[in-house]
């Protein structure tokens, strides 16, 4: 099993998908803890240091998820446009980029920590950067969301332009093979763009409610609850879509749930003392009777 996992991780695309899925899973886990604090007597605010760390962790994991899609876009760009430069599709490069992604995210969130932007929200039982802090939210949206989305857009726009230019050139055998591979990549890219579109939608409620708060001089009372529910739905959609667009994950999901269900039905088949199912034993008996009848019908040589 461990060997199989190592072999799958050699697929860079699968490795990057696992990295993104891990970020999304951590966002969901942190969000569940924060919602739980609201439901169960505000256990997070009993220790304000832990409360600040939990709010910071939520932003770290969500930001890392956005930048992980940047790395996926860069990988597709190198695989299609710069396919001749083999060092750009080396596994070690992307392992380094994943590590660098986390270092970058920590660096980007260092100013909010030093500026003490994380506080306990007045209407909630957890800590985050309040949407009423306009300067903090502008920094937050710019560096944690807009920049990665712009990078993703540039990568896929470059790929699209390159594919259109290649489609107009003459075709030889090697070019045809590469084109078929690129067409498969384009299908995956279209699906990833759908996921990125969901990420863009993820920020719309925040921006809309912030604008409402500035105009009304006060936030809507259910602002954080609405954003929390919308975030949960979007992350759930991303999880389902990721399984659908990743053949390895889809196969693993099928093997885990479908085959396990079939195995349960097989295990429930009644057995007798011989350890065989009744239908199997009946088949053996019929076969033996047929063989005995054939022996009787064979003429003896001495006759």
From TrEMBL:
A single cellular component GO annotation: membrane
Stated name of the protein: G-protein coupled receptors family 1 profile domain-containing protein
Localization in the cell: Membrane
TM helices/strands, residue ranges: 12-40, 52-71, 92-118, 138-159, 188-212, 224-245
Domain G-protein coupled receptors family 1 profile, first and last residues per copy: 1-205
Keywords for this protein: Membrane, Transmembrane, Transmembrane helix
Transmembrane in keyword set: yes
């Amino acid at each position: 099993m461990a060997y199989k996992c190592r072999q799958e991780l050699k697929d860079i695309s699968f490795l990057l998908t696992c990295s993104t899925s891990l970020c999304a899973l951590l966002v969901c886990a942190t969000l569940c803890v924060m919602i739980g604090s609201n439901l169960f007597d505000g256990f997070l605010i009993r220790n304000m240091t832990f409360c600040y760390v939990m709010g910071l962790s939520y932003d770290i994991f969500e930001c890392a998820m956005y930048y992980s899609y940047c790395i996926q876009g860069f990988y597709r760009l190198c695989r299609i446009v710069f396919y001749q430069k083999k060092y750009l599709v080396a596994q070690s490069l992307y392992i380094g980029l994943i590590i660098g992604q986390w270092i970058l995210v920590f660096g980007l969130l260092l100013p909010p920590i030093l500026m003490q932007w994380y506080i306990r929200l007045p209407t909630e039982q957890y800590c985050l950067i309040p949407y009423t802090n306009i300067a903090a939210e502008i920094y937050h949206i710019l560096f944690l969301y807009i920049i990665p989305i712009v990078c993703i857009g540039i990568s896929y726009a470059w790929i699209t332009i390159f594919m259109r230019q290649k489609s107009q050139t003459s075709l030889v055998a090697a070019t045809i093979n590469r084109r078929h591979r690129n067409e498969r990549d384009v299908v995956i890219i279209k699906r990833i763009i759908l996921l990125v579109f969901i990420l863009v939608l993820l920020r719309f409620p925040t921006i809309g409610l912030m604008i409402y708060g500035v105009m009304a001089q006060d936030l809507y009372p259910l602002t954080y609850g609405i954003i929390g529910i919308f975030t949960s739905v979007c992350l759930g959609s991303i999880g389902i879509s990721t399984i659908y667009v990743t053949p390895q994950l889809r196969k693993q999901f099928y093997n885990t749930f479908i085959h396990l269900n079939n195995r349960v039905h097989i295990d429930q088949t009644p057995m007798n003392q011989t350890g065989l199912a009744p239908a199997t034993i009946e088949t053996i008996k019929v076969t033996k009777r047929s063989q005995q009848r054939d022996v009787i019908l064979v003429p003896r040589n001495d006759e």
